[in-house]
Predict the 3D structure of the following.
Amino acid sequence: MIHFQNVSVRRGERLALNSFSLQVNAGEHVAVLGPNGSGKSTLIKTITRECYPLLRPETRLEIMGQGSWNIFELRSHIGLVSNDLMAQCTRDITGRELVLSGFFGSIGVWPNNQNQPGMEAAVQTAMERLEVTHLADRWLDELSSGEARRLLIARALIHNPETLLLDEPTTSLDLTALHEVRQYMRVLAQEGVGLVLITHHLDDIIPEIDRVVLIREGQVFADGPKEEVLTSDRLSSMFRVPVQVVERSGFYHAW
Ligand code: ADP
Ligand code: MG
């Protein structure tokens, strides 16, 4: 699904990804954990081609087995939930329009977007999956952040992607919404949808996620089974502060 080998991406003066290598197979449930500024969003943006790698002979970058893509086609294949997309959800867009616009790789439907047969049915199915059909005719700026986040996840599912990319999907949610979003991630994972969950909160790592990649300063710091990676020692050296990790009923907590 995702194959990065020695990928370097410059942002401003710095290398946000520095000879970064990662392979994720379709259907895997992976968390990518790292401090702020470690390159997590750059990783996602390199997948969606908002950022481009430096051209180096040793660099290889393939998404779904393909090295070059028409970016609109690529974006329509990828189920993405991010705070950049969330931030665009402020205008007068209805819940249904938001979900439908996943077909066009946009936020909100524009006059040049052509509805094809089957799209409305797909919107209905995606909205039923996230239990947001009652929000179809509501304006986005009138919704709670949890409701808007669920609609954004429904939008990302519109093409039935094999893998969802979630960049900090629980940012700014209250406890109830946090719990709901984690529950929906669990259900989707159990249904076989692959997840690449980017986060800096250990608590987001739902029990269905079995592999954890730690990133620091644009490089992979650790990659392996959750039980081996999420230890107090490893996280303390990654975050460079003393961290205590506990596991309870499949969830991990740190303080
Ligand atoms: P994370 O998502 O892990 O917090 P990012 O991938 O957003 O990290 O950022 C990685 C590095 O790239 C950081 O040092 C950040 O300051 C830098 N960076 C991010 N966006 C930009 C930008 N638009 N211009 C310049 N530097 C940026
Ligand atoms: Mg980020």
